[in-house]
């Protein structure tokens, strides 16, 4: 009995890497000299020829191996180790914990909400005082 493994969907990997790089299909299309519809079709394809894959990798600033071996679990390692510096791109290393930054933003948002709520309470008290005087 043989176990068949599901083939790797290279188009989905390209799509995910493009999204992680905060790049729209139109931007990738422009870098490849094509249109957005062609990028959409490529991202829906299970396979892509090697020459096209090299062009896409260069446009995304990663290596062909990074695309072929991409997985959600290992994405940070791929972006840190497979960046193609010969293409003139540089890998930015994160010097902070993104979760800490997110929690700082949550706290800041909470404080702003509390200030807004206090301001609304003061406004309501002022209006009530004005109505009572009339």
UniProtKB/TrEMBL annotation:
Residues annotated as signal peptide: none
InterPro entries: Cro/C1-type_HTH, Lambda_DNA-bd_dom_sf
Keyword terms of this UniProt record: Coiled coil
Coiled-coil regions listed: 102-129
Protein species of origin: Flavobacterium ginsengisoli
Keyword Coiled coil: yes
Record-linked Pfam families: HTH_3 (PF01381)
Lineage: Bacteria, Pseudomonadati, Bacteroidota, Flavobacteriia, Flavobacteriales
Protein name (record): Helix-turn-helix transcriptional regulator
Domain HTH cro/C1-type: 14-67
């Amino acid at each position: 009995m043989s176990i068949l493994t599901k083939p790797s969907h290279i188009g989905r990997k390209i799509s995910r890497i493009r999204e992680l790089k905060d790049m729209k299909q139109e931007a990738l299309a422009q870098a490849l000299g094509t249109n957005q519809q062609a990028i959409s079709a490529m991202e829906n394809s299970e396979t892509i020829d090697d020459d096209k894959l090299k062009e896409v990798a260069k446009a995304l600033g990663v290596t062909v191996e990074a695309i072929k071996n991409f997985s959600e679990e290992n994405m940070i390692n791929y972006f840190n180790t497979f960046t193609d510096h010969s293409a003139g791109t540089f890998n930015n290393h994160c010097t902070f914990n993104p979760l800490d930054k997110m929690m700082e933003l949550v706290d800041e948002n909470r404080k702003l909400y509390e200030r807004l709520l206090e301001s609304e309470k003061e406004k309501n008290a002022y209006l009530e005082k004005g109505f009572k005087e009339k």
